[in-house]
Amino acid sequence: MKYGAHVTKMRWLFAIGHTGQFPEFKTLFATNKRTEAGVTHPRKIIIDTDPGQDDAVAILLAFASPELEVLGITTVAGNVPLDLTSRNARMICELAGRSDIAVHAGCDRPMRRELVTAEYVHGKSGLDGIALPDPVMPLAEGHAVDFLIETLRREPPGSVTLCPIGPLTNIATAFERAPDIAARVAEIVLMGGAYFEVGNVTPAAEFNIYVDPEAARIVFGSGAPLVVMPLDVTHKVLTNRARVEAFRSLGTKAGHAVASWTDFFERYDMAKYGSEGAPLHDPCTIAYLIRPDLFSGRHINVEIETEGRFTTGMTVADWWRVSGRAANAMFIGGVDADGFYTLLTERLARL
Ligand SMILES: [Ca+2]
Predict the structure, then answer these.
(1) pTM
(2) Where residue 74 falls among pLDDT bands split at 50, 70, 90?
(3) pLDDT value at position 237?
(4) Backbone dihedral angles phi then psi of residue 116, each to the nearest 5 degrees
(5) Which of 11, 101, 284, 325 is the most exposed place for a label (fewest CB within 10 A)?
(6) Ligand 1: distance of its center to the CA of 77 in Å?
(7) What is the DSSP letter of 252?
(8) Which of 122, 235, 281, 299 is catalytic?
């Protein structure tokens, strides 16, 4: 068996014991590719994003992690309109001293719907909580969709991982325009959806999927290997005072920014859920790429509702495997939250 096929098989088969809420959890196998000489290369990723404070933390975590090589950042309309997500992405790059990163602006609205935004969570700018200077670095030339298509065609098949942490408009548009590229994607590790936690923007739907369910349907039906970080897992990585103060006490610009962003947006979740803190949704994707052993889930069928009277944008996750439909996603449900925050804090200290 070729190494690549072996790894893919092992990713789905490797199981660990789990004592959490759900029995039969499985976790995935190692992520970084090894050459035959045993040398580990950084995993090439493209972050597709709508920053968003939790997007910002995800991007900083990726920059701080030598296991990952960020080929570029693509922006999409979501938490706030595209001009702001594109501005915020560049501010985050500059905060981390990474103005070398190519930030490509993408789609400014969902494929077939009006844009829905979430300033009520993230503030007017999308990145409220700390005043950062306007970005100096320009946007990279070329539309995000073209960048996705060109990069996936240029790089060897199976070598580029996509990390969508906003609505899936850019990825789906690229797949629709260039049907050959889905088979070249190593893996799509996305934040979106919910099953046991149901919805956060409607009673049935999570925000990223709800904003562009037609795009989500294309991505979930693409055949590309999918790892999904739904609310079921992100609601288990809640901030608390000790965790936020650990960021702040790093004494770095990045640590201060992350503490300030977290202070800002946790007010919304605390009021809504009565929880101690706020979930850091998007960084779960990057943490998974670095430490998959922190997470566990099930390889199941997930369909996207696009025509529901009350349920449009719902991720219909066949957790109990009752539908007979073929599995298309590793749906994550469990996480070692302390391990997650230890990793995040340790990495942010490097910026
Ligand atoms: Ca996001």
Answers:
(1) 0.91
(2) very high
(3) 96
(4) -115, 130
(5) 325
(6) 10
(7) S
(8) 281
